[in-house]
Amino acid sequence: MRQTDFPKFTAPVHMDSTRAQNSRSRSWLAQQDWIASGPAQAVNRLTRLVSAEVKFAFGVDSFLNTEDRRVLEQIIFPYFLGDGRYRDVLFVGCSWCTRGYNRIFERSKTYWTMDIAPWKKRYGAKRHIVDGIQNLDRYFAPGSLDLIFCNGVYGVGLDERNEIEAAFSACVNSLRPNGILVLGWNNTERLNPCPPATWECLRSLRRFVFPPLQTAEFETATPDRHTYSFYRRPDAVEMRLGA
Questions:
Q1: Which residues, 6 or more positions from 138, have their beta carbon under 8 angstroms from its beta carbon?
Q2: CA 45 to each of CA 24, 121, 144, 197, 199: distance values in angstroms, whole numbers, following the listed order
Q3: Residue 185 falls in which region: left (phi positive, over 0), alpha (psi -120 to 50) or beta
Q4: If you ran DSSP here, which 8-state letter would residue 242 be given?
Q5: Which end of the chain has fewer CB atoms < 10 Å from its terminal CB, N or C?
Q6: What is the pLDDT of residues 172-231, one digit of tens each?
Q7: Distance between CA 121 and CA 126 in Å, rounded?
Q8: pTM assigned to the model
Q9: C-alpha span between 96 and 98 (Å, rounded)
Q10: Digit-coded pLDDT (tens) for 89-115
Q11: Cβ-based neighbours of 109, under 8 Å, separated by 6 or more
């Protein structure tokens, strides 16, 4: 896959009655936290949401035009999509700008999405789970996932240390040996209440030097210093040797 190909993928068109569409739209729009957003932010958010829904009705996906998304979509995704070792994939954290990922991954992977907000199911894959990631063991056996993406979840709702430890302990347990966790987080004081380097749940993992970026942690040139950290679950031999 060429890096410039990514935005050209489109989602399938879903035809439905106008009445049913309007009913569902009222439902998910009503569940937005408009007050907490502030007037200006709420208007901008509503504009993006409505634009994404209109485009989706015509079979066109919407993507977020930011540097951190460029890195994710044009550098990180192609590497894993092109590697047959990563078959069972979970993406945590759904939004209007992630709906286009579903068709891309479902072409060649067994792909799940997960979000704790019920209304975000509209952005999920065919295999979508409505729950918090601390409950992964309800859906996946230990050591059954090859790859987990958790992007824009920590620091944006998942903020308390005990909840963080429970959530990412579940991720660690769900990864197979040599499975990869890709953690996307914002490295600012407001959005980074418990720096990942201090999480006990990640101590059993190894840093994974991601080949295209040649680093295990990559900070993008964005206002929130959005950072991608890569972790690998060691195999049984490494565990025995303590490597």
A1: 131
A2: 18, 18, 36, 32, 32
A3: beta
A4: T
A5: C
A6: 999 999 999 999 999 998 999 999 999 999 999 999 999 999 999 999 999 999 999 999
A7: 10
A8: 0.80
A9: 6
A10: 999 999 999 999 999 999 999 999 999
A11: 81, 86, 87, 88, 89
CA 210 to chain centre: 17
Strand 145-151 vs strand 88-92: parallel, antiparallel, or unpaired?
parallel
45-58 b/e (C-beta count within 10 Å ≥ 16 → b): beeebeebbebbee
Cβ atoms of 146 and 176 closer than 8 Å:
yes
DSSP 137-170: GGTS-TT-EEEEEEES-BTTTB-SHHHHHHHHHH
Structure tokens at 214: 């040649």
DSSP 105-145: HHTTSEEEEEES-GGGGGGS-SEEEES-GGGGGGTS-TT-E
Does residue 191 contact residue 159 with C-beta atoms inside 8 Å? no
DSSP state of 196: G
Which of 141, 187, 193, 184 is CA-nearest to residue 164?
A: 193
Show the tokens assigned to 203.
Answer: 């101590």
How far apart are the C-alpha atoms of 163 and 168, rounded to whole Å? 9
Where do the domains of the chain lie, and which CATH numbers do they carry? Answer: 18-57 (no CATH), 67-241 (3.40.50.150)
**Nearest-10 crossing angle of helices 39-57, 18-30:** 150
**Cβ(194)–Cβ(137) under 8 Å?**
no
